[in-house]
Amino acid sequence: MQYSNRVLNTPSSFIRNILKVTDAPDVISFAGGLPNPISFPLENLQEAINRAIDENGSKIFQYASTNGYLPLRQYIADKYNRKHDLGITADDILLTTGSQQALSLLSQVLINPGDGIIIEEPGYLGAIQAFTMSEPSFYPVTLEEDGLNLEELKVALDQPNVKFIYTVPNFQNPTGLTYTAERRKEVYELIKDRDIILVEDDPYGELRFKGDSLPYIAAGKSENSVLLGSFSKTVTPGMRLGFIISKNKELMRHIETAKQASDLHTNIFSQYAIYEYLTHNEYDTHVQKIIELYDAQSKVMLEALEEHFPENVSFTRPEGGMFVWATLNNGMTAMEFFERAMDVGVAFVPGDPFYTSKKDVNTLRLNYTNSAPEVIRDGIKRLATILKDAEIVQKS
Amino acid sequence: MQYSNRVLNTPSSFIRNILKVTDAPDVISFAGGLPNPISFPLENLQEAINRAIDENGSKIFQYASTNGYLPLRQYIADKYNRKHDLGITADDILLTTGSQQALSLLSQVLINPGDGIIIEEPGYLGAIQAFTMSEPSFYPVTLEEDGLNLEELKVALDQPNVKFIYTVPNFQNPTGLTYTAERRKEVYELIKDRDIILVEDDPYGELRFKGDSLPYIAAGKSENSVLLGSFSKTVTPGMRLGFIISKNKELMRHIETAKQASDLHTNIFSQYAIYEYLTHNEYDTHVQKIIELYDAQSKVMLEALEEHFPENVSFTRPEGGMFVWATLNNGMTAMEFFERAMDVGVAFVPGDPFYTSKKDVNTLRLNYTNSAPEVIRDGIKRLATILKDAEIVQKS
């Protein structure tokens, strides 16, 4: 059987492939991107679920509309208008089966084989995977400390048939970097008059533990803006509930058709349950608890990195979110480091799957949200021993 | 913005587009394909959900594996081995976001633009929509009383790059027809030595109210078999839970990659909830109740059709499932009939969206599962008045 080019060219997820190894009980894993289960509002969710059933009966178990449960879309519109002044209505929102599905739908409706996608380098591997299924040409643009490199962005924008730019402006996956206010404006100036969609994927935006929340690059300002959100990092990822926000009616109509073809509609039981949870609990207080937890865990990791890692390893200092990005400057590739790290029972994600055009890189992603402080310290110490051994070998 | 060819060529669902009209409270709708909400095991599901939370805690709210919850896959394997002697293991099963997603994934991994799909004519419109997103060439084969027309099938099998055949062998959507045992064998003989996948989509198989259950065409016999199942028609469609069964390891590996790219994994909360429901309740007794309900409702519709419809309208007599298929032989197209039917407050689905190569057809789908007996009688009577008026006009 000859399989489709799209699937033959699509990498299976490195993270999901190593789950069996990294999930072993004696392995310290900084590999996944899992929220800390402590952060799930278990009791309040259970109450919300029972209330949703008691009050709505069989209709939460029936087929439902493709764009999603109206009160939940209205809740999201009100929240983004209040917090980010977007000027949107419930009709500008479509609920998706996690924001992974939003990435898949966007590329399905915008990309013919060979059309261009501008992507941060390094970029989110789930996005690379979703987009690759539509057989695009990737135009990677270096993600710097302040955001996308503007010179590279200018060149990329002039490439043929570029359909959209994919960004994660807050606490990016994998780097943890956040675009500065200045860089957001500069990127907006470059794209605002072009027939190119700017996608801002913002699953972590609420999880800021340092500094002030910044305005989006294009959301609320441009017809060509698409903003993605998710309940996975603040309520539950297991229910797979994300959303697409855009005032671009034509785009949203095509996305709705693609959504029908993909899975008819998003799990309606979960939509009711999460709506009930959001409207009957102090969501902001709950998010504040997650922020404090991740703030503490990130501090522990950064302190351990400072204390134990050799000076030739640099790393980012995130203001929120879930990840630290480290760069080895000792001649070792991240894959070599990964293999030796498995020997000492520590896992992380080598940088390779976050690049569309590079291999054998010297960068890696460390997750701090899903390990207790003492485990983080222990894991970083173990990794440090490998790096020190490597230095000794190098010097000898 | 230039959208992708795949989405520009994909019809949005006729059924979903007319929902606003057909869902009005004063409209009698035979249009949808909704299970009767009476059939949802509401109380037992609520118990199962609470048990799932109490016993498993936060892990049912966390990210999960792409192929699905192992005990549920094992349950499905055991059931199909017991009832259909398929000889499968849990690893031959992947849980999907409804069986609509299974249709989407199959075409994504098998079809390059222009590759062939053999489809029943008329065929399931959700499948036509899902497949069209992969830009195939459709080779429709007439679905007759006994199953696919064999002469047409032979010709279609010899078309270039045919990748799979899509069938609904039991109580087909839209016709309600069931392949005979003999025709199943004949189809199997034609396909068994070819490098072509046979998809058997069987969401209604358990809902048989007449005759005996028949062996699948290829499931359990051939490496090239794919069997699709769903909990939508017997437990709940709202939770979007379906499954793919195939012993073809290479195919399943590609489907898993496409599934990761599409939505990472199926809602794990719902997988646990439905597993708890299935393992703590008399599922067969529950299904028996649905069968009795639909048997009664189908009888009412068939009797009303016999009594009120003119003789030049023919219709199928399903042995199970949810639909009757009617053919007008009075010169009227189904779309004309539909428009007049809306004037008397009755909706159905005109046949057009079930064909890949025909327009202005004289066939239509009637659903009997989601209306009470007296409503069914009233609706069919109202439709009959239009047909009688048309006859008078024709004669005069």
TrEMBL record, chains A, B:
Transmembrane segments annotated in the record for this chain: none
Cofactor(s) needed: pyridoxal 5'-phosphate
GO molecular function, one term: transaminase activity
Keywords tagged on the record: Aminotransferase, Pyridoxal phosphate, Transferase
InterPro entries: Aminotransferase_I/II_large, Class-I_PLP-dep_aminotransf, PyrdxlP-dep_Trfase, PyrdxlP-dep_Trfase_major, PyrdxlP-dep_Trfase_small
Alphabetized Pfam families for the sequence: Aminotran_1_2 (PF00155)
Gene3D superfamilies (UniProt xref): Aspartate Aminotransferase, domain 1, Type I PLP-dependent aspartate aminotransferase-like (Major domain)
All copies of domain Aminotransferase class I/classII large, residue ranges: 44-382
UniProt-recorded name of the protein: PLP-dependent aminotransferase family protein
Biological source species: Kurthia gibsonii
